Amino acid sequence: MSIKVVVADDQEITRTGLRMILDAQPDIEVVGEAGDGRRAVELARRLRPDVCLFDIRMPHLNGIDATRQLAGPDVGDPLAVVVITTFDLDEYVYEALRAGARGFLLKDAGPDLLGQAIRAAAGGDALIAPSITGRLLGAFAGAGPAAPPAQPIEALTDREEQILLTVARGRTNSEIATELHISLSTVKSHIASLMTKLGVRNRVEIAMWAYETHRVKH
């Protein structure tokens, strides 16, 4: 079964390009497009896609607020949202992650990474563009979180601390497995344990927690 995606961007040429890239993937189907945030939210609520791919800067309702309405902490049945942006140092991206986005990419990420991000979000995971993970999260975590980050409900093991750092640096599960010489299933188990102990929903929030607690230095 195909992964159904709604694309929202105020530039028609960008929407067309994203649709062409995604529709070329054998397991992904674009089921709707929107040129502004308000329409994107309406469309997403009606179609209930597997993933929403939203630009940050859109008229009527920006991508951050659209994300919050569909995936925020107060949403009972959140949708998966991936944010895509032109700028690699855009403060709005950090806000979008706080609003519930499962990942973010640059618009020049390329078809392979875009497909990976969509599949990760559809599978309940998240993908942060590795090229900007540390620079972006580090820059804005340096300003301090809106509230002090919660402490783990249970102390992290040494291995979990290692996994935490690799996730914060944008490594994929396969890359973590190779780097730490452990199996893929072991990586997934540790990430699930981290989410439970930290009280977070996905690896984006794991990365944010790592930066906010200064475990990763920018």
String of helices and strands = EHEHEHEHEHEHHHHH
CATH architecture label name of the largest domain: 3-Layer(aba) Sandwich
Just give the CATH class of the largest domain.
Alpha Beta
Corresponding CATH superfamily of the largest domain: Response regulator
Tell me the β content: 5-15%
Report the strand count. 6
**SS content category:** alpha/beta
Largest sheet: 6 strands, parallel
Kindly, what is the distance between the CA atoms of the first and last residues, rounded to a whole number of angstroms?
A: 41 Å
Question: Uncertain spans, ≥5 residues at pLDDT below 50?
Answer: none
Using the CA coordinates, give the radius of gyration.
17 Å
> Which strand order spans the largest sheet, edge to edge or round the barrel?
2-1-3-4-5-6
Fold-level CATH name of the largest domain: Rossmann fold
Number of alpha- plus pi-helical segments: 10
Helix content: 40-55%
Q: Please, what is the oligomeric state?
A: single chain
Broad shape: globular
**Total count of domains:** 2
Nearest-integer average pLDDT: 85
Verbal overview:
GO terms for molecular function: DNA binding. Residues 149-214 form the HTH luxR-type domain. This is LuxR family two component transcriptional regulator. With 218 residues, this protein is of the alpha/beta class. It has two domains: 3-129, Response regulator (Rossmann fold), CATH 3.40.50; 149-212, Winged helix-like DNA-binding domain superfamily/Winged helix DNA-binding domain (Arc Repressor Mutant, subunit A), CATH 1.10.10.10. Helix content is 48%, strand content 14%. The chain contains ten helices and six strands. It has helices at residues 12-23, 37-47, 63-71, 91-98, 111-122, 133-141, 158-168, 173-180, 184-198, 203-212, and strands at residues 3-8, 28-34, 51-55, 80-85, 103-106, 127-128. A six-stranded parallel β-sheet has the order 2-1-3-4-5-6, with helices on both faces. Helix 2 packs parallel to helix 3 (63-71), helix 3 runs parallel beside helix 4 and helix 8 (173-180) packs across helix 9 (184-198). The longest helix has 15 residues, at 184-198. The mean pLDDT is 85.
